[in-house]
Protein 1
Amino acid sequence: MIFKVFKKQELARLHELLAVNIVVGPVVKGKDRNGKPLYDFDVVYDFNELALDYTQTVHSPKRFVLPYHETLSTFAVSRDGWEKHVDLNVYRPLVFFGMHACDINALNKLDLVLAQSTYPNPYYMGKRKNLFIIGIDCNPEPQCFCRSMGTDSAIHGFDLFLTDLGDGYFAEILSATAFDLLNQISCKDPSAKDLALYKQATNGKNKHYTAKVETSDLTKILDLEFESPAWDAWGEKCLSCGTCANVCPTCYCYGVEEHVDLDLTHASKTKSLHSCNLIDFAKVAGGHNFRPTSASRLKYRYYHKHRGFVEAFEESLCVGCGRCGAACLADITPPEVIASVRGKE
Amino acid sequence: MSEPLSYLGVALARPKVGFFELSSCEGCQLQLLNNEATLLDFLNLVEIVNFREGMSERGDNYDIAFVEGSVTRKDEITRLTEIRKNAKILVALGSCACFGGVNQLKNRFRDLDWVKKEVYGDFPIETMEVHPLADFVQVDLSIFGCPIKKEEVERIVTDLVVGKTVRHPEYPVCMECKANENICLFELGEPCLGPVTRAGCDAWCTSNRRGCWGCRGPAEGANLKQLEKIMHTYGFDREIILDRLECFGGFASFTQTAPTQDKKSPARRKKS
Ligand code: SF4
Ligand code: SF4
Ligand code: SF4
Ligand code: SF4
Ligand code: SF4
């Protein structure tokens, strides 16, 4: 790994060099009812729009690799057949300017299923391969439990990772592209003082984690607690609204719909992200719903993330960003749900 | 126009359709005429035999009847029964037809005569309390919304013509709202019925920063109990919830059982 440091004003130059591509980064979207700024990822045209000291975005970066709705193919239909057109919907390389460790890890987890499996998903791959990611350090919010999930630092899956040292940035370089890029701005090797500042930043951050999920033996406990009354209690609150899956950086379930155009000469196949919490998620042909209660659906979301995925990949499908709990109007949060199933310590 | 319809070489029947309105603002029918870009394709797909809003000829020979509006006069029951007899498929078009719509707000008042006097003054019209179509005839298909979304009607009509099953989302508006990456209105300090209202409008209002009023009626398994708690947490009183739930009539089965003590005015009409 190669480390460099550079002065803060160099960052604008870095942005300028990258701005020939589409740049996406955290921006302020408004204020909540208590006056706190609300952040989200969006296309950024001006360096000054970037809010790099953001706490956490309401939505995850997911939509840039897994859009909520995506046309998979279109068909020109004629009397004697049809012609299929496939577009992977990749336009230009995308630069992510300022992604936290949890979201970088979330993309790495999506890769396990969508890029490294037997049948990689070309729509995902096309977008994922064309990402240039600049990571940035963060300050844990009250809902963050990434540390419990082992996703508080990003080891791979980015090009450049920046840590704020006050006057400048400490840069971790992971790709040749990033190395070439840094050669075009003024930077130097870290001094002993920079290293001390870097360690101070990392150690300081560790004190701020408040939320926690106990993951020891969690797959087994979940196995044993399939009938736990805790699920019914959470199910009673759940609105089956799908907000948790929509804001989650790792939820990837989807449905596909075919649509015939009004003129009967064109048709299309569209994929839409779904959520296992939705009442129609487990409805099959003939109308049977094999998860008719909100409790069984909510439980399934936790089993997928914290049991099934762990058994398949030896890691959880949750990065502990806490977005689902923060966005849930019924106040259903992973730390509380899992604690209730685990019982008292 | 008269060329036979076909899809993938399979001949399709061009259904004869009629549009009818009972008590309504005719906004749903207007929505259909709104999109000039697709209007000709729409007209090619069906044979319209009755559409007062768009043509002057009338016919009673139709396969599909789209009925807009609610029933609020005795003669409308007769007309509706007649339409039902003629149609193979009867479609309730819009929230008035599905739930009574905005019209059914008058059912909230105990004294209907007082309502009539307020509205019509000295020129009273013979009306009764407002009903959705399904109170009198069998409805085969509902198209929700106040107004309906033209794209949705076009999709449904295409599905009917090519023989696909017509399907509505059963989940609530929040799903579409979040897929549009909106900041939740509760977070911004505004109330919203999105968590309990059936989706399908692509979160029309909330994507324009207006809270949902529930015009498409309840989502399947809507969790009203939790909505009440949420409204309470975010500081909205029962009156605000009830005003919204009662607006289009879709939540009648919930609001009629809701306790009424803290409802001040107008006097809520109890089922006697
Ligand atoms: S979840 Fe962890 S990595 Fe993500 S913002 Fe919170 S503290 Fe940072
Ligand atoms: S857990 Fe919360 S966000 Fe998720 S479906 Fe249930 S109510 Fe909606
Ligand atoms: S389940 Fe919740 S905490 Fe875990 S990654 Fe998804 S949104 Fe974040
Ligand atoms: S604004 Fe309304 S529809 Fe959107 S997420 Fe919030 S409650 Fe749901
Ligand atoms: S957001 Fe609510 S009120 Fe607005 S169109 Fe959709 S269902 Fe109707």
Note: The mean pLDDT of chain B is 87.
Protein 2
Amino acid sequence: MSVDVEPVGHGRMLRKEDPRLVRGRGTFCDDLTLPRQLHLAILRSPVAHARIVYVDATAALAHPKVKAVVTGADLVERGLAWMPTLAHDVQPVLATDKVRFQGQEVAFVVAEDRYAARDALELIDVEYDVLPPVVDARRALDDDTPLIRDDVAGRADNRCFDWETGDAAATDAAFARADVVVADDLVYPRVHPAPLETCGAIADFDRVSGKLTVWVTSQAPHAHRTLFAMMTGLPEHKIRVVSPDIGGGFGNKVPVYPGYLCAIVGSMVTGRPVKWIEDRTENLVSTAFARDFHLHGELAATSDGRILGVRARVLADHGAFNAVAAPAKYPGGFFGVFTGSYAVDAAHCSTTAVYTTKAPGGVAYACSFRIAEAVYFIERMVDLLARELGLDPVEIRRRNFIPTEAFPYLTATGWVYDSGDYPRALDEALRIADYDALRAEQAERRERGELMGIGLAFFTEAVGAGPRKHMDILGLGMADGCELTVHPDGRAVVRLSVQTQGQGHETTFAQIVAEEIGIPPADIEVVHGDTDATPYGLGTYGSRSTAVSGAAAALVARQVRDKARRIAAHLLEVAPDDLEWTKGSFGVRGIPTATVTMPEVARAAYGIDLPDDLESGLDAHVSYNPENLTFPFGAYLAVVDVDPGTAVVTVRRFVAVDDCGTRINDMIIEGQVHRGLTDGVGVALMEYVGFDEHGTCLNASLMDYLIPTALEVPTWETGHTVTPSPHHPIGAKGIGEAATVGSPPAIVNAVLDALAPLGVTRLDMPLTPSRVWEAMQGRAAPPTDPPHGPTAEKGTP
Amino acid sequence: MQVPAPLEYARATSVEHAIALLERLGEEARIVAGGHSLIPMMKLRLTHLEYLVDINDLHDELDFIRVERGEVRIGALTRHRDLLESEALVPELPIFRDAERVIADPVVRNRGTLGGSLCQADPSEDLSSVCTTLGASCVIRGVSGERVVSMEEFYRGPYETAVGPAEILTEVRIPLRPHSSNAYAKVDRRAGDWAVVAAGAALWLDDDGLIADARVGLAAVGPNTTGIPAISEALRGRAPSEEAFAEAGELAAAASSPTTDGRGSAAYKRHLAAELTRRTLRRAAERIADRALERESA
Ligand SMILES: Cc1cc2nc3c(=O)[nH]c(=O)nc-3n(C[C@H](O)[C@H](O)[C@H](O)COP(=O)(O)OP(=O)(O)OC[C@H]3O[C@@H](n4cnc5c(N)ncnc54)[C@H](O)[C@@H]3O)c2cc1C
């Protein structure tokens, strides 16, 4: 595992960004202080649903340190009160007519310091005429449920959208043929990405030049620039977005939040730079959540366990505004991959999405475009079928895997899985875990009354959005630009559209380029995050950076290499085709002494002796439009113990075998997997965003929104197989979300396995001790523990 | 960043000085010790104060652990971390290390204090249960002198104690008796989380090995955190046994009045009161036996 020798290209190496980050020398939004900077604080609604009677800012304006107070009414005057969301909906920057979730933005104060801004919020007088909240998504479409979105003319109910995928008739036919049908209701609760760095922005509008610069916690700086232009009406070339170091995103920093617009307006109003940094409570109660899916599933199978058909009905809670970040033609995200890793001929899903009086969002948390939900769904359902048929969970999966020779494989819902070798990954996981020994140990422990469980999840993701012909966000195609310049001294700068939030782009992308042009990663500077210094692209989420921008980086490097070849040919006085490329230098075939190195070529590229038909310099620019998504997969196995007396779940072992195609840097991949597995333990055991009957968020601090610590996670046992993507230039598939997606079902399946002797078959996350104990008593969790009471028959679509 | 409202701050140079400041500044002034309960509430603007009187310099007067004959005295400014690491407490009062291992996290334990914990009087707070279990008494000082109250007198209800506005808790005194031990157990949803339910138990045996006294202190089972006299009554004079401990568990469950919340259902919490009472009594009994063995072999 030595990392002493840095590879010139792919391979294990320490992260280039870490000397900066581990020494506390990173520059995050809140580290920046601009001359004459002011501070902004936002007044938020204390109630979930209310009509605003009045907002009186007189007393706040009189505060000696306050420079401006802006209300929804002020923004109406400027035409800035409402902004588009990423999902073709609208959302108020500051509430005008009503507030629609607790924590919604109502007014903001700009003051000389953060303390004064916060103090002045208490001087703003707002009268609310409180309306009944809509907390339970299953009641959102009932006749007597109040209408939330009366801002949209003609809207009669709280339906956000309906969406279908698959073939209903073929699925019905498959069910009619089946020997066995199993059905279950599952809830994937609302969770929050909870990045340690909260969201924030510093906006600096220069009244003289008309230029707006926004430093902002953004996973997608270019997309945000376009959105800021749309929202403010400023010309896009006068907007510069800079996303500095980001302290974790997990999808939380994909949307444009009202706070960013407030900072921009604040700077326009005061003529000074304005900083807004969200506090922890604001982040938890108002920014993008994830999941919140009520699922009904049915599997049809033969008596020997072959799945014939899959049915899914989904009720999705989108909160008060549809602010999902998903490609426009996929309102339900990529849930369409709910047939999982299995060869299933017929499948159908109908989704109803509803508005509730909760914070908007819906895709964040290692966003995965709903693949987390799809994987959870199918992996729970497959285990249920195994149990019904008395089959081992390993065996049921083997019997249904898409055969290795069937790739590329067209699924029943229209996805083309690019490549896979599922039995190999599963075998590797079983080998690491020593599955047979674990089952023997389990039998022994059961004799002693102990509750040990083994859970499997086999997942396939669809990442790297996406092909332009299918995928766009607000009409913006999802291709990524990339620029590479090799300087005269042979060192290079690569400019990316994507932005790291901790994933190690400064290393990975240097390695991708290094592999292609033979310059060491240390000599390749990665520039990203600043829209004035990087080409256009849609940003980092949905595990798309390596899958899309990684491809762009490889291709741009190959273009540079092609040009270098022509220069080398000129220098060596041979035809380009007579040259042989060995990483780092060109040599004339058959003449071992006739070589020229990349730095020599670079020097020549800026010199005076170049062929007439070549421009000076050594650089290139590409935009990569992926041909298809990539489909990483993995086999996960969890071993848990449940304390029979207290029902506390301990994850004792966790084996994760990932196949993300070509591996660029094992250390970074392992880091991504460790992070995602930790997320998975959090989601499975403790994380959820709950609301009381008034619609008040119950998890407004990290005392109440629990994220796991090192003490809750085992020593991760990772392994891998490599099945390259056939269409990606270097065969890489993306790893950012695999573990977040794959681990929760493995853990829940393990706990259900542990509780099998007690006859427990149903359990919804999070598996807190109380919920597990209630299940052990034969009860579902009490309905007072929102939002995962037993699924009621009423209201399910 | 969450920021508190403006306030004044004074650093006390002695207990006497602190009391004088409290006396002069009145109801809007408050002691700050570790600050790990008070400061978060101020930052969330749930508590509004005009004055903070900081007692963190008063090490000589308030920061000590003294094991004396028949009694352990612990100063109010003793940090969680010192209680966790104290070797002096382990032989007689292993319950402190049990509890401190599961109270909060190292950051909080480095600053949070015994006095602050008791004075905060949160019904989920762990050290109050420990002190209740041990039959501790609290020393309170004001302008007119010092008084000593039992835990039952000290704890008046959630967030309410016998400490008056111009008074300070200075120390906690724990009686020591032979043939005894104690233990603490907590169920939480995650390390560093407050208890779903926690229980402390202490056993004192007589020369014949029968239970001379037994005490149980629960946390997070309702507004009341004071002891459960029925358990002492039921166990006195009996031999330590699974059966006796099970009975004590039932009494603990019956004495608790938990509510359903994000940490768990009321039924589960009542179940835990019984389960953890059994476990800690069992552990305390094992410890007494272990110590007896140690003494024999010595
Ligand atoms: C993240 C986190 C997790 C936690 N988890 C746990 C847990 O699991 N279990 C647990 O028991 N506790 C937990 N706590 C609370 C922690 O133990 C606190 O430190 C403790 O409750 C208060 O001690 P303090 O010294 O910080 O008190 P402070 O916050 O300084 O004061 C608390 C109150 O006591 C008063 N006070 C303090 N000292 C005196 C005195 N000598 N005389 C009179 N009044 C005084 C103050 O005026 C104030 O009203 C947690 C706290 C945090 C922040």
Note: The two ends of chain A are 52 Å apart (CA to CA).
Protein 3
Amino acid sequence: MAPAETENVVMTYRDAVRAAIRDALRRDDRVFLMGEDVGCYGGCFAVSRGLLEEFGPERIRDTPLSEAAFVGAGIGAAIGGMRPIVEIMTVNFSLLALDQIMNNAATISHMSGGQFHVPLVIRMTTGAGRQLAAQHSHSLEGWYAHIPGIKVLTPATLEDARGMLWTALEDPDPVLIFEHGSLYNVEGELPAGAGPVDIERAYVRRGGSDISLITYGGTLRTTLAAAEQLAAEGIDCEVLDLRVLRPLDTAAIVASVARTHRAVIVDEGWRSGSISAEICARIVEGAFYELDAPVARVCSREIPMPYAAHLEQAALPRIETIKQAVQRSLGGHHG
Amino acid sequence: MLRIRRFEEKCVELYSAARIRGFVHLYIGEEAVAVGTMQALGADDAVVATYREHGHALARGVPARSIMAEMFGKVEGCSRGRGGSMHIFDAATRFYGGNAIVGGGLPLAVGLALADKIRGVPRVTACFFGEGAVAEGEFHESMNLAALWKLPVLFCCENNLYAMGTALERSESETDLALKASSYQVAAWSVDGMDVLACQSAAERATTAIRGGGGPVFVEFRTYRFRAHSMYDPELYRSKEEVEHWKQRDPIATFVASLQADGLVTQDALDRVEQEVTAEIEDAIAFAEAGSLEPVEDLARFLYTEQN
Ligand SMILES: Cc1ncc(C[n+]2csc(CCOP(=O)(O)OP(=O)(O)O)c2C)c(N)n1
Ligand SMILES: [Mg+2]
């Protein structure tokens, strides 16, 4: 017997994404999943395993290695009345489709004077940390958030992995969903009938009064772990999960900083010209007089990601570097 | 071929022992292609490869030591531990990577050949890629440019029938890849990629044509990978029977058998080769084990060219 809708089920982040896709395919026949190896192979991260058997090759559509063409075709199909979920294996390969995303998906509604709409969802894996080296370790979600006309989601929890897709598919405009590669095996509990979640607001994942740690996606867990350790030292961190990088929930950022008067931004992306820079700017614009210390950032080192484990770890935000940034910001003045 | 086979078998062990990490794509089953082709290249020629490039690097003459050290993430590795299995670079042998973006090496090869052509240097650039890359725009744009400008590129398409789990007939409307290439006015033909001598003569015929100023050549090598796409995959996309069928055509076993049938090699000689190979690989592992880690202070080195 299937568990009752409200009963909690143990599952992984991967299961949650799969359940979200399955829900969507059942709910709406305009929905189909398209991408490299989503069918026969079962998805390069095993997210879509079993869906081909359940829904058939028309709705679980394997594509050739042609990112520009199948992303563009997803845009066309969305304009043509479908609700495609396009999967790009990883953000690294989305660069081959960047023209379609930026010049078509993001522009057509506005450029056509509101005549055409692109209700498309593009999902992709992002991030580093698995020794895959420079060409397979990019974190470009913040960079995509630069583009007006698309929305950028970064589900960091099972609940968001399950619920964001639903809302994204109801959105009349293109939505990009970034799933951090380190999250797929994370286990948690979720109600069997977990439903849609909003794709507008940032959430406070941990309340605190001394400092705001602002993050999203793959670094949420690291940041929460750092906050936990800092709590043992008597430092009470608030952790804000942005969830959505475009449009940014500026009000939530400003409100958090107004409560704590200090902020550290944790972002796996590079620092220069980045989403962390943008958040910093919003704080300066909206909460300048609330600040007791300069805003600090913990980002990836500005280099292509190296293969060797010790170099890669040194290049990424870590619990240790987050703690140091917090301690510097507090400068011994807390408590 | 045996060097490559044994080297990669060791890689599997070392991966299981967590000495090597990241993505590792094995060439086992496809060795004849790289080995045969490299015979047709001179020391001045250039090679561009993919993430499945241990075999190409070894056959090209990149020392086993520096490849192994690279996979161990050591500073003695050919890319100082920054690249790993997918990014073997070696200036001494004009080995230009190790590219992990499917199709990413093709335009690069076109450019290397363009530089040679402009400078009047009579060299060939050999570019290896899988049949999966043929679906990418970069393949088509590169074929056209190379043909249009009559550039000295040898396009080596390693058709192992699958791009991860996608079979050729599920990704190409026209599965005759040589025909496809010839639509760009590129001389193109196919060859049995399990037969090292056939690979060699196909490559020699191609390089002779290229050196004669005839512009690029495309060779489709019909081959098969015996192992998973990467270190592990559930292989839901092909049958055990199919894999077994291709293993009957193992390029090493069949070549040895034909040498033996013709009385060209003794068991003694074969044993000696096996011992030499084992010794070389053991030495490479010992070298990699003994290697050092790049100091973390040097993390940002080489982001830009170091001028001294
Ligand atoms: C542009 C791009 N898309 C997707 C991938 C993921 N990927 C890596 S290898 C591969 C299959 C490539 O197949 P093929 O070109 O036939 O080479 P083979 O692996 O069979 O040697 C895929 C899909 C990638 N590396 N680059
Ligand atoms: Mg292939």
Note: Chain B has a mean pLDDT of 97.
